[in-house]
Amino acid sequence: MTLQAAIATNRFGLGARPGDITQAQSDPRGWLEVQLTAPAAPPPELREMEDSATRLAATYATRKEKDEDARKPMREALRAAYRADAGRRIRAAIATDVPLRERLVHFWSNHFTVSTSRPIVAAAVVPYENEAIRPHVTGRFADMLLAVTRHPVMLAYLDNAISAGPDSLAGIRRQRGLNENLGRELLELHTLGVDGGYSQTDVRELARILTGWSIAAERDRDTGTFLFRPNLHEPGDKVLLGQRYDEDGMGEGLLALQRLARHPATARHIATKLARHFIADDPPPAVVAALEKSYRDSDGHLGEVTRTLLRQDAAWAPEARKVKTPTELVISTARALSGDIHPTAPAEEDAQTKPHADPALRAVTLLGQTPFAAPSPAGWPDQAADWVGPEAMVQRVDWALTVGETLGDRIDPRQVTEQALGPLASAATRQAVARAPSAADGLALLISAPEFQRR
Amino acid sequence: MTTTSSPDWPLNRRRLLAGLGGTALWTALPRVSFARTIGDQRFVLIVLRGGMDGLAAVAPYADRDYAALRGRLALPDPNAQGGVLDLDGFFGLNPALADIHPWYKEGQLLVAHAVATPYRDRSHFDAQDLLENGTVTPHGVATGWLNRAIAPLGAGRRLGLAVGQGVPLVLRGAAPVASWAPSPLKEADGDFLDRVAALYANDPLLAGALKAGLDSASMADHALNNDADMAMDGAMVDGTPKPKAVRLDPTQLGTTTGRLLADANGPRVAVMDLQGWDTHAQQGTTAGRLAGALGNLSKVLVALRATMGPAWHQTVVAVVTEFGRTARPNGTGGTDHGTATAAFLAGGAVQGGRVLADWPGLSDDRLYQGRDLAPTQDLRAVMKGILRDHLGLDDAALDKAVFPGGATPAATRGLIRT
Q: Which of A26, B56, B76, B329 is deepest in the core (most CB within 10 A)?
């Protein structure tokens, strides 16, 4: 069971901390399943964070500020808030006792990506995750879909907040128009998938249905909370995927989301993405089929679907077929080292730059995965070819060496190998670590080794 | 979907780490103490490591011996296709420096030619040490002349900035300095990479990516970063790993440095290294390894000027190298280690638009040891001139502490716009 325990911690967790493999050893799958019923509340690191509405309101206020001298510190405060949040999020992942849950949060957050590439939402991305994603990762997909779609951060990110039906009051009076961004991504990325059998007409119809899902303002001050604005809503009946929607204001969208969550194409899309994320870039069709069935049978209960995943034999194959993303690599390295990847704080930090100091946050940025900076609404890619390009591979090795040289003389890399990989470590890797010219190099070799780069 | 700027940190000042300042490297030199504070003047020292071929960077195209001597490495004259860019009817700029050619006419670019440090041998390691320590002997002292120059000016403030992963000798010493590294990552060396590659023997994906990465890195970094010869004889300084060259595109390097220097409360003096000058083979003329390196230099300078804004008017950038190269081409389309070379001064504070040279000529009997451009001016004189008239040091400090060889060579006059 030790091998299964090592797989449980690495493939389905965020990498083993010292003692994790031993702890999971008696019942590796049970060790994971119990995490699915753990409380959905945010981990301690993420509590007492400002909510997304506060952050959005501050962002809007910054944009409205005309005086550049006054605007500058406001903008810097927003940036600092993002950095602080992102640092807390990664520290939470390094410290968590329920790594499967945290993995699921990251997975679903990436599925429903919002990105700092739109500065309007940048200060609110982590609160968005806590509010719209985190409560639902083992709940019903339909609930998460609704929480996301009506979330102001998503509505701002994909421009729905300003989308106006051409025949709505605002459309007529102010000559504003329809924005299809959310409608399209909702079908293509969030639910049916690109091959899910929808047409451009469906994109437009869903956009029409969602007109009015917007963000509130009070007396000229944006509050950053959700508001359905009837004067933006396109009046009249709509037809989405062959189904008729009578004019019902916000009700149209609620119904559309429910139907999309239950759509067979959505079941297949979600099943494929989950299997690809946890098992292999090109997942076994039998696993996808099992997850798809589980999704349909449970009416999209994600805890149930995840449990089904854990019961697939293919999920426990010894061969590690997935390459870790930079985030997974950094988090698992820190976990292997009991949370510490860079114990020596750089000298003479000034207070202004303190938020930069988080070494894990720095590392993921260096390795190309700045938190919530995915290049498109499709989120970060989830296949090896996207992460181990030539330059990226060299950077990974350089980073391993940097960690090694920083920590090398404080740890015994052979012990770290045993605790982090256990039976997953190959004879070649054990030998390379043991024979390295220094502890620093030994640790760097462990981090560079295929068994550590993969999961 | 637009991808606009992210809230990612603009310039990461966290990486402005404390350098070697204050760590008792101050040893053999007398310390001239006097109170003085620096104004708004900026000074940037760019060290071209590996030995830049001055005859290729600034060609004396009108010298009657030039074309025959240089053979296949001779640059065409200004009227020819791809010819040098004329400066004063005698010297012409390598076309790889075309972007800074207009600066000459503006009076913001000065060339000092047939210039050399007092060093007369041909080791990179020793030559660079002497270039940086400011004395007449390699390894004579463990501090750098630029650190000694700013030591009395800072009043505790970090005036100096080293761009790179370590602080080069020229900026080491008692005065506290900052360093900024474009990437804080170590770069794995050959031995370590061999060990990693062995681990990837059964993982074609990772093995292939690593190999491709190293191949492309070595190509892309050729000019900035890669120099087999240097790696051989210059790997260590003071028993510590030699600061590695930065793996960064030159425009980014210049932009970042420029932004730091533009800051009113930022550093006043910066040092950066550029690699790729040790052109023993495939040196080329208007294209090839040297042209690539010159192009990088040009990009750094252009980016510096573009980002420094008004501060550029108070700036002198000095571009120096440890020695020149043989006047004649060698057998592999390159040149070997030589003696005199060219140096550049650029910036809004430079009294430019001229080539400063007591030209020795290129006939066989005029070449140093029958092979190199002969040195006719001392690089220390040029540096003294900048420190005195731009940063405001007095002769006593210059002759005793900064370049402790006495009053000779005297500071070159008139380098700075008044």
A: B56
Positions of E strands within B275-322: 315-321
Q: Is the pLDDT of residue B221 over 50?
A: no
Residue B64 within a domain = no
Domain finish residue from A196, A229, A262: A262
B18 vs A348: CB contact, 8 Å cut-off? yes
Q: Which domain holds residue B164?
A: 42-50+81-402
Does A376 have pLDDT greater than 60?
yes
| Structural domain count, chain A | 2
Q: Is B214 on the interface with A (CB under 8 A)?
A: yes
* Cis geometry, peptide bond prior to residue A390 (ω within 30 degrees of 0): no
Q: Identify from A348, A398, A426 which residue to disrupt to test chain B contact, counting B C-beta atoms within 10 A and taking the largest count.
A: A398
Q: Looking at beta carbons, which residues of chain B come within 8 Å of A370? A: 6, 8
Q: Flag the least confident range among A153-157, A257-261, A358-362.
A: A358-362
DSSP A303: H
Tokens of B159: 């005036």
Whole-angstrom distance, CA of residue A50 vs CA of residue A85: 10
Q: End-to-end alpha-carbon separation of chain A, Å? A: 17
Q: What is the CA radius of gyration of chain A?
A: 23
**ipTM of the shown complex:** 0.89
> Based on the domain organization, do A383 and A247 belong to the same domain?
no
Give chain B positions within 8 Å (CB) of A350.
Answer: 13
How many contiguous H segments (helices) and E segments (strands) does chain A have?
A: 24, 4
Is A439 part of a structural domain of the chain?
yes
| Residues in chain B closer than 8 A to A357 (CB atoms) | 14
| Residue-number span of the structural domain to which A387 is assigned | 320-453
Gap from B241 CA to chain A (nearest CA, Å): 13
Q: How far is B194 from chain A (nearest CA, A)?
A: 11
What dihedral do alpha carbons B152, B156, B162, B163 form, nearest 10°?
-130
Residues A157 and A240 in one domain: yes
Interface test with B, best of A397, A406, A433, A454 (most B CBs within 10 A): A397
Q: What is the largest CA-CA distance in chain A?
A: 76
Looking up residue B325, the CATH number of its domain turns out to be: 3.40.720
- Is 80 exceeded by the pLDDT of residue A442? yes
**Helix, strand, coil % in chain A, rounded to nearest 5:** 65, 5, 30
Asked if residue B348 is part of any domain, the answer here is yes
State the smallest CA–CA distance between residue A56 and chain B in angstroms: 14
Q: Which residue of B has its CA nearest to A425?
A: B199
Task: Please tell me the total count of domains within chain B.
Answer: 1
CA distance to partner chain A, nearest, from residue B161 (Å): 15
How many H helices and E strands in chain B?
13, 15
- Whether the model pTM is above 0.80: no
The answer to the question of residue B245 being in a domain is yes
Does a structural domain hold residue B59? no
| Torsion, Cα of A400, A406, A412, A418 (10° steps) | -30
